[in-house]
Input
Amino acid sequence: MTKAIVLTGITTTGTPHLGNYVGAIRPAIAASKDENVAPFYFLADYHALIKCQEPERVRQSSLEIAATWLALGLDTSNAVFYRQSDVPEITELAWMLTCVASKGLMNRAHAYKAAVADNEQSGENDPDKGINMGLFSYPILMAADILMFNANKVPVGKDQIQHIEMARDIAARFNHVYGEHFTLPEAVVDAQSATLLGLDGRKMSKSYNNTIPLFEPEKKLKKLINKIKTNSLEPGEPKDPDDCTLFSIYRSFANNEQLQEMRQRYAEGIAWGEMKRELFEHINDHITPARERYEALLGAPEHIEQQLQEGAEKARAVSAPFIKELRQAVGISKISI
Ligand code: TRP
Output
């Protein structure tokens, strides 16, 4: 049986938080251990430049994200784990795709449309103010990431489904013009993987500034958990676990038995202070071994770099011959004598 190629990228602009872990990293790492899957996971550092022009932040984020995946036990003997910028064929392919993608398709991209809508709302005369071409053609670079490896499945959040559809569209168009070169990818949106709530009870997200970084040191983790918003019910008053940020986070880290027990304690009126302590201890126990590995890795960046280099080598074993074929197909080649 040929393995399904599962590919996903992580933009290197921030520090991974508990929401990223539960929603994306944990399921991806589990999949890396599945022998029927050929996973390609990469640091989307060229994507980072679209929204972040702080070189140190991009560098630091790349380091932290790579260390996070390795600390959590990514199986790099099965998964190809690489940095987008180490595979120059991807950006080369992005240009070929740019030349078959229609501008109208890009005009319809949600991220671009949202930026235009923001400008219009703020009474701006120029609807494209502050929008760089990277943002505009973002879906094309993403299509190149995916098509370069002929990925079958692309696990993403809901907000990215449109991009996968665009990748299919662009691939189909290229195939139509130049012959069948690309597999049409499918988005996989895991309905099971939970959306974690953040400190203020909204979805945990960098843009809401309500996150709990995954490998926050113990003391800080405790402080952040103490900040989570609760209602004003007193100790002893029965509480509703299904309408509680603390419980919703606890749920993503607990087994059924622990959940049943906690529901019981809510019914009995557990105090918020006590629940916060329970939540802290629970998450901390869960995270501590990986946090120790994470800190060790940050102290040995050469080890991380080594892993990424090995990943790039494996990735380029696919991308280098494929780009040759594609160049040939579009008419870019040496003059034949
Ligand atoms: N755009 C994705 C995000 O912001 C990251 C990404 C870049 C990606 N290239 C990709 C995801 C290719 C899947 C496949 O989440």
